């Protein structure tokens, strides 16, 4: 069965995620079609969702204005996978510590915007990630700090003693940008290796 992946495209880095999910699908022997999501009505048809980086205040406002926010919440309640990266993770969080971000509450974490890597706005680091055999080349760009994780949230990776990748049920969130390298293993981990899903993404 071909899987339909939706990349939330109201703002932010879209095309890199579309490419990465295609590559990750190929690595898992799954055919993937990619839809860009700018309006309500498409998310309910999607098997997988990507919530890219960009500017979290803008993304969250547009998601609510367009009526996409509640569709994403329903997608998660149905147990379908989401990969949320950087600003996407801020929007997905329970608490963004910033009233201008209306969070979705699909990943039970508290984040602080622009607080990670204070000295350097952007950096790349080899990251040990739970479930990956070799370190992942993680690109951090004005990344959020994950300051607290809820019960039941699994920390998949840490940098400098801080969580930078988490799994909360069907949602995987990263502070960094996995779409900016040719390495699609994080997309594989988040979207094609979900635990306890309904079977639609398993390799059976
Ligand atoms: N700094 C951005 C925000 O707080 C996130 C940065 C990114 O997605 N690269 O919304």
Give the SSE layout.
Elements: E1 3-8, H1 15-27, E2 32-37, E3 48-51, H2 56-66, H3 69-77, E4 82-85, H4 87-92, E5 93-95, E6 107-112, E7 122-127, E8 136-141, E9 145-149, E10 154-159, E11 162-168, E12 171-174, H5 185-191
Parallel strand pairs: 1-2, 1-3, 3-4, 4-12, 5-6
Antiparallel strand pairs: 6-9, 7-8, 10-11, 11-12
Helix pairs in contact: 1-5
The site of glutamine (GLN) has 11 residues, from helix 4.
Number of strands: 12
- With helices defined by DSSP (H or I, 4 residues minimum), what is the helix count? 5
> Major beta sheet, specifics?
7 strands, mixed
At the fourth CATH level, what is the homologous superfamily?
Class I glutamine amidotransferase (GATase) domain
Query: What fraction, in percent, of the residue positions are helical?
Result: 10-25%
CATH topology: Rossmann fold
Helix-strand sequence: EHEEHHEHEEEEEEEEH
What radius of gyration results from the CA coordinates? 15 Å
Low-confidence stretches: 196-204
The class by helix and strand makeup works out as: alpha/beta
Strand order of the largest sheet: 2-1-3-4-12-11-10
Separation of the first and last Cα atoms: 11 Å
What spatial form do the alpha-carbon principal axes imply?
A: globular
For the record, the CATH architecture stands as: 3-Layer(aba) Sandwich
In terms of DSSP E residues, the strand content is 25-35%
Return the average pLDDT rounded to an integer: 93
Give the CATH class. Answer: Alpha Beta
**Count of distinct structural domains:** 1
- Bound molecule types: glutamine
């Amino acid at each position: 069965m071909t899987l339909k992946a939706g990349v939330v495209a109201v703002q932010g880095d879209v095309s890199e995620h579309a490419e990465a999910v295609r590559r990750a699908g190929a690595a898992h022997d799954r055919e993937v079609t990619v839809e860009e999501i700018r309006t309500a009505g498409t998310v309910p048809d999607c098997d997988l969702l990507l919530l890219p980086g960009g500017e979290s205040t803008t993304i969250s406002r547009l998601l609510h204005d367009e009526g996409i926010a509640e569709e994403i919440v329903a997608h998660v309640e149905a147990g379908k996978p989401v990969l949320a990266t950087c600003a996407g993770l801020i929007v997905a969080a329970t608490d963004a510590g910033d009233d201008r971000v209306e969070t979705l509450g699909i990943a039970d974490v508290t984040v602080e915007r622009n607080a990670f890597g204070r000295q350097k706005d952007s950096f790349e680091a080899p990251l040990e990630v739970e479930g990956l055999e070799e370190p992942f080349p993680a690109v951090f760009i004005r990344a959020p700090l994950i300051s607290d994780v809820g019960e039941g949230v699994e920390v998949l990776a840490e940098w400098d003693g801080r969580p930078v990748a988490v799994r909360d049920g069907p949602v995987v969130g990263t502070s960094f940008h996995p779409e900016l390298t040719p390495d699609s293993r994080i997309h594989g981990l988040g979207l094609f290796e979900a635990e306890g899903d309904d079977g639609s993404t398993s390799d059976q």
